[in-house]
Design brief:
alpha/beta, Rossmann fold, Immunoglobulin-like, 10-stranded mixed beta sheet, disordered N terminus
Length: 731
């Protein structure tokens, strides 16, 4: 998993590899801040400024520029070629093959090469489903590395399919019979581009392990690698938006950033229809990161796997796995005390699930240097590794559900927590409960029976889990996305709850401030809001199934604001009635008053200032607008300038003979002005003008017979204008 740091000055974007000899791991160099791969200092990620897009959702200023770097641990294989034998237990470092991982987690057996694959068997390999791998920068060898990985481990080959940047979205459905792999580049706004991102060795390793192990888990699923231009949160968010536009699938995200008050502002990006989102929890022990903290994302933690064949599997929580209790995100409805071990928690807890991630029990990954055809083998670890494998599991579950004419899981939390984990026999058969290990010294940092923050519900007993998910209607319960609402003291608040459900609903509101209510249509009202922050919980109950969903609304009521007035410069003429509007912007009705006004100037109840007989001079007039409910007052000073009558235009009618050149003068006079703007319209073709002192000279080399009318408008530097109409007759 890739960690995106909040402060560029404290980032360690380019960690070194965990080196391993045939006997044991050597001491680690700087740990990666994402969940896969390492790199050297020559490829450090820049923390340059990123221009925010205006689409929704967006990251707040200052957050969008944060950057991510590969976060898993990777270890060079002690052999030039991987040794495919069962790994010893104890302290010896293990590196597992796809076949060993499939056996350890009871994934369906792969058919022998050349065997006719039935529709049911194809579904067990994720056929017809799409896995979106979201990463930063570019790995030029992704396709070649995957081909080497497939050849070495006898996995189905993938056809390369080019997706043009101009391709219509959403894409056509994935193949039900074969694997396809595509690489696309995204813009920060969520579109596609033909511009290839720069190379970065750390991210290249991350890409390699993400693609290869998603494929190893679901070998017939379509894989679309989305490469962001850089590792900023803004660019990575654009990659997620692009995945949403490309069509139904599973989004695997091996990166993260320290959570903050901003995280809820982009939760809606994880709510696209028929999409599942997974993110790694991190590799630095107890910590909570985004996007895994989002209640709409399946947070994947890590374990230490020991497996040397049937009947010899054991697992403990990996000491480096991320996880913990969020400081900002409210408890989602699926994390209830009905889940064994969950208990009461006031905030979202991660992880949700887990998979092998310890770099000391790593998994083989093929790596090629840019420009080289030589394959090197790394032993990779980190929650980067566990995340794409859980993405593969969801792809298989969706393929099985499609075969049974059932909808895709979408957000799988209700199924995993509410319909599997709360049933004791089902929980025991679908998950391995990880009850040993720790990742810190906090009160909740030690694994225990039932749910815990290290491994969540546990690791999958894949056969039973997939069978259960194939029969689970995860979309039956209503979903109530959390949202933020703002209001002002003294102004009635009203908003409508957004709910995804297929049947009529009833609504209840808990944790709401006094006076806030919800009606049968899901409209929340609060006639007299009080200043403060509130977290009311909306529960929507399906009247047909009885299933419920909850969402927490963050309601912020700000202190009232004074009315605002925008000052302007007003220009008038002596003796000519003057009128201008000083309209206030206010949430409530206002009353107007005026101060510093010259004699005879008044203001009415709608903010219109009148002066029947202006007197020459310049005046500073203060207009006040008082809020009739809050008593707050806003003011603005208007500069009122009463100047002389303005320019005088003197010109005689212009006459001439067709074909005979003519010239005529238009005189302008104004003793109070220092400059003029002159506009002449109605000019016949061929007539030109030039300036000579205070005169405008009209010239016409070849007059054409006819009658014309010149409209001359002169505006002086005081803003006063005059106009004159000059007839032109050519015989």
């Amino acid at each position: 998993m890739t960690t995106l740091h909040s402060h560029p000055s404290t980032m360690n974007p380019e960690p070194g590899f965990w080196l391993r000899t045939a006997a044991a791991l050597l001491s680690a160099m700087a740990l990666l801040s994402a969940c896969g791969g390492g790199s050297n200092s020559a490829d450090q990620v820049a923390s340059g400024t990123v221009t925010l897009q205006m689409d929704i959702p967006t990251l707040p200023s200052g957050v969008a520029e944060q950057v991510a770097a590969p976060f898993s641990q990777s270890v060079p294989s002690p052999d030039s070629e991987p040794v495919f034998t069962p790994m010893a237990t104890g302290t010896t470092t293990a590196t597992y093959t796809p076949a060993q991982i499939r056996a350890a987690y009871s994934l369906p057996d792969l058919p022998a090469s050349g065997t006719t694959v039935t529709a049911a068997k194809a579904a067990q390999m994720g056929a017809g489903q799409t896995i979106y791998i979201v990463d930063a920068y570019h790995n030029p060898n992704t396709i070649a590395e995957l081909a080497a990985f497939n050849q070495k481990f006898a996995l189905p080959a993938c056809a390369t399919k080019v997706i043009a940047p101009t391709a219509a979205l959403p894409l056509a459905a994935a193949s039900n019979t074969a694997c396809e792999v595509s690489v696309v580049y995204n813009t920060a706004a969520g579109g596609m581009t033909a511009t290839t991102p720069a190379y970065n060795s750390g991210w290249a390793t991350e890409i390699s392990l993400d693609v290869q192990w998603a494929h190893a888990t679901a070998p017939l699923a379509r894989i679309i690698l989305i490469e962001a231009a850089d590792a900023s949160l803004n660019s990575l968010l654009g990659a997620i938006k692009l995945a949403n536009s490309m069509g139904p699938g599973i989004v695997s995200m091996s990166f993260g950033a320290a959570e903050g008050s901003w995280t809820a502002s982009v939760d809606s990006v994880f709510t696209a229809p028929k999409m599942t989102y997974l993110a790694a929890t991190g590799d630095s022990g107890m910590a909570v990161s985004w996007p895994s903290v989002s209640p709409n994302v399946l947070a994947v933690g890590g374990t230490t796997l020991s497996y040397s064949g049937p009947g010899t599997k054991s697992e403990v929580s990996w000491s480096g796995t991320g996880g913990g209790i969020s400081a900002y995100s409210a408890t989602p409805s699926y994390q209830s005390n009905a889940v064994p071990g969950m208990g009461f928690t006031s905030r979202r807890v991660v992880a949700d699930v887990a998979f092998n991630a310890d770099p000391a029990t790593g998994q083989y990954t093929a790596i090629m240097a840019p420009g080289s055809t030589t394959v090197s083998w790394l032993s990779v670890g980190g929650t980067s590794l566990s995340t794409p494998q859980w993405a593969g599991l969801i792809a298989i579950a969706n393929a099985n559900r499609a075969l049974a004419s059932k909808a895709a899981l979408g957000l799988p939390h209700t199924a995993l927590y509410g319909q599997l984990a709360t049933v004791p026999g089902t929980y025991a058969s679908t998950f391995t409960d990880i009850t040993r290990g720790s990742h810190g010294t906090c009160a909740t940092c030690t694994a225990k029976v039932g749910y815990d923050q290290l491994a969540g519900l546990g690791t999958p007993n894949a056969t039973n889990l997939l069978n259960s998910l194939a029969g689970t209607n995860a979309s039956a319960a209503p979903t109530v996305p959390s949202a933020a609402v703002s209001g002002t003291v003294g102004t009635a608040l009203s908003f409508t709850v957004s709910v995804n459900a297929s049947n009529p609903l009833t609504y209840t509101l808990t944790g709401a401030p006094a006076g806030m209510t919800i009606n049968s249509a899901g409209v929340v009202t609060w006639p007299t809001p009080l200043a403060g922050q509130y977290s009311p919980v909306v529960t929507a109950k399906d009247t047909a199934t009885g299933l419920t969903g909850q969402g927490t609304y963050s309601v912020t009521i700000s202190a009232p604001k004074a009315p605002t007035l925008t000052a302007t410069n007003i220009i008038g003429r002596p003796g000519v009635a003057l009128s201008f509007a000083a309209t206030a912007v206010s949430a409530n009705p206002v009353t107007y008053s005026i101060a510093g006004a010259p004699a005879g100037m008044t203001i009415n109840s709608t903010g219109v200032v009148n002066w029947a007989s202006p007197v020459l001079g310049t005046y500073s007039v203060t207009v006040s607008a008082k809020d009739s409910k809050t008593g707050l007052t806003g003011t603005a000073v208007y500069s009122v300038k009463i100047a002389n009558a303005g320019p005088v235009i003197t010109a005689a009618a212009i006459t001439g003979t067709a074909g005979k050149a003519l010239s005529s003068s238009i005189n302008i006079s104004d003793t109070s002005a220092t400059s003029f703007y002159i506009s002449i319209s109605g000019v016949p073709l061929g007539m030109t003008f030039s300036l000579s002192g205070m005169n405008v000279i009209a010239n016409w080399a070849k007059p054409v017979a006819g009658t014309y009318s010149l409209k001359v408008v002169v505006t002086n530097n005081n803003g006063l204008s005059s106009q004159a109409t000059i007839p032109v007759t050519i015989k």
